[in-house]
Amino acid sequence: MGTDHGDLVGAGEDRISGLPDHLLHRILLGHPDLSTFDAARTSVLSRQWRRVWADLPDLSFSYSGEPGSYARTHDRIDTALDAYSAPAAKCLRISVPLSWTCRVPVNRVASWLRFASRRLAGELRLSLRFGKRKNEEEELVIPLCERATAIRFMDLGCTLRFRLPPVVGAFAALATLGIRDASLDGRELDDILSSRCPRLKELVLEGIILPDGDAAVAAPELQTLFLTIGPFDQRGTLIAAAPKLKDVYCYNNDYGYDPSRHRFVEAGKHLRRLAIKASDAALMRQFNAVDELVLDVYLPKGVQPYERFLGDTSMFPKCKVLNVSLRLEQHALEPTMIRLLRKCAGIRKLAVCHRNYGNIVLLQEGYSCKSLRCPCDSPDNHIAEDIVMDCLEEVEIENNRRREDDTLELVNLLCKCSMIFEKKLSIIISKVSGSEYLCEKIRSIHPPSNKVVITIQP
Question: Which end of the chain is less congested by CB atoms within 10 angstroms, N or C?
Fold first, then answer.
């Protein structure tokens, strides 16, 4: 006679059921990779554990596998949400593989959102791909989630609609809203942000499509804006009205910031942080002062890209910290850094990170640009004696093992300029582990002195 599953569960001495629920919750929540599916499987361990998982504050569903198993997984999510017994969940995360073979029916997601609308008092994160036939655009209606503090819709590939009752109802607790890879109605977005999210402080818009061509971001409490400029309708506009704005992160996929279509109105002129590409100079000019300017400098080979760089960097806001990420294809490092230092004379700290451009290793000592008459090869652009750096005290250089000559060239430039700097300069070079060649070269460039202190970190 065989032993069934129920006999196995009840067999032996149960040493777990006597533990208090709060301790069982800590055990189930203590492992970062433990999903709600895994927590539900612990029901076989103890009679008491058969329902403990259904009272957890965090619900996390992520899965992968063969395409044939996806429908069963959707059923398991529905079953788990139906069995959930706690009054409110602090977190609901559902993540599926980003694959065109794994698509979630919109009616499934709608039921998960209804659960969030009724039971969630915390973070909602959906990362999934919708199922739609060719030439068929699916819409997902977002219900009111009055107690949600953060909502993130990632990689949906559908149209989000905010069809809320007029006047009544708001996302009263919402502080963070993030949307990536979705279509939005600009008028609905404007209504949600301006009148339905009174506590919104962070907004993330990445890869969104605006079929009607217009969108307005009117958020009186907004402090942080992440914006990826994508293929908006060329006739449309994106207007941001945020008087308390402090941090702006603006990236683009070769479309670029267009001041005639992307405008900041009712925004302060002093930012805490501005992260942009060097080509988005028009956005820099929207602000008078920035505590930290994060600049992505990408220069493809050729004369025209470097000439555009010189034009884009003709004027900078006043900043205390300049954080530069460099990707130079066959252009000289020294004149590029001289240009940036000259335009940011008041900085107190400089951070530089060298990035690879494909498999190209750039710049050897004494390197000359291969583009005929490129400004980066002009002797006038290598003159650093007129740089005025009255405030610079600290420089951080992130070494790139494939670009160590760049690191040496930058250290050499800073040591030469230090003779005209007003303050003692501290240069910290990180990621130098195992490179005796680089260490010896750095020591030979500048021996210990009371003007410059160089610290090498592994």
Answer: N
Q: Which amino acid is at 147?
A: R
The answer to whether residue 87 sits within a structural domain is no
Counting the structural domains of the chain, the total is 1
Q: Are 345 and 317 in contact (CB under 8 A)?
A: no
SS3 state of residue 385: coil
Q: Is residue 266 part of a domain?
A: no
Tens of pLDDT, residues 315-354: 999 999 999 999 988 888 999 999 999 999 889 999 999 8
Q: Give the structural domain span for 37.
A: 19-56
Domain-embedded: residue 444: no
Determine the length of the chain: 458
22: CB partners within 8 A, 6+ apart: none
Contact yes or no for 261/283 (Cβ under 8 A)? no
pLDDT for the residue numbered 393: 92
Token pair recorded at residue 282? 């028009």
The residues near 15 (Cβ < 8 Å, ≥ 6 apart) are none
Measured CA angle at 279 (ends 430, 374), to 5 deg: 85
